[in-house]
């Protein structure tokens, strides 16, 4: 199989669930972070026969920091002492900015971009599980599954999983995006995304407590606390397996009917 054929692979059917288990959170927690960071996709649309490129955002202020400000005057579009939203080009044009910066300082350029599903900065490659920057960058081109693995490693390396478990979106946002997270309402976006995902999980006909009560009537021993935690999600999957339904942990219409809801 040619190299091109293995690049740009989407998430596998069990990738999100596997990541959630490693973090001891629900699928909704993982999906909420991905939704806010990359709108649910780690790759840009492909063009022709070319494989899709990973989503990136090139940060001029980081490139300036990594290069000691040497290119602030000569290349103000990619090197800036301060963060400037107006410098973003978006989409495929971010790769153009990255290539321009790489022509000046290769490692500094790749450290200055955020990558993939979790938009992890290149300078965080070690926390994402890769000692070498080039190895970290390389897997971003291969698959969303590997991007996801980087995200899990980064969260665990920084001890941020506890904030997800507690539903402390401010704590998670501060650790993930830095002390100025409130300026972009990052914590609010995460909370809103999680709320939407959980609502989609339990459906519109009732709340999580009702779902837990119904599962308990089928022999599960859940605390009816109204929290969509890992045990509730695991119970949904087990119930779905028993009933011959798709075991995705989502209490959609078929699952709810089978539960009598």
Structural write-up:
This protein is mainly alpha-helical. The chain has 2 domains: 3-55 and 116-188; 203-259, Muramoyl-pentapeptide Carboxypeptidase, domain 1 (Orthogonal Bundle), CATH 1.10.101.10. Helices cover 49% and strands 3% of the residues. The protein contains 13 helices and 3 strands; from the N terminus they run H-H-E-H-H-H-E-E-H-H-H-H-H-H-H-H. It has helices spanning 15-23, 27-38, 60-66, 93-102, 106-111, 133-140, 144-157, 161-166, 169-177, 186-202, 208-216, 230-242, 253-259; strands spanning 56-58, 113-115, 120-121. The chain has a 3-stranded antiparallel β-sheet with strand order 1-2-3. Helix 1 packs across helix 2, helix 2 (27-38) packs across helix 10 and helix 9 (169-177) crosses helix 10. The radius of gyration is 21 Å and the shape is elongated.
Shape: elongated
Distance between the termini: 48 Å
* Alpha-beta classification: mainly alpha
Query: What summary fits the major beta sheet?
Result: 3 strands, antiparallel
H/E topology pattern: HHEHHHEEHHHHHHHH
| Rg over alpha carbons | 21 Å
In total, the number of strands is 3
Q: Average pLDDT, to the nearest integer?
A: 89
Percent strand equals under 5%
Give the neighbour order of strands across the main sheet. 1-2-3
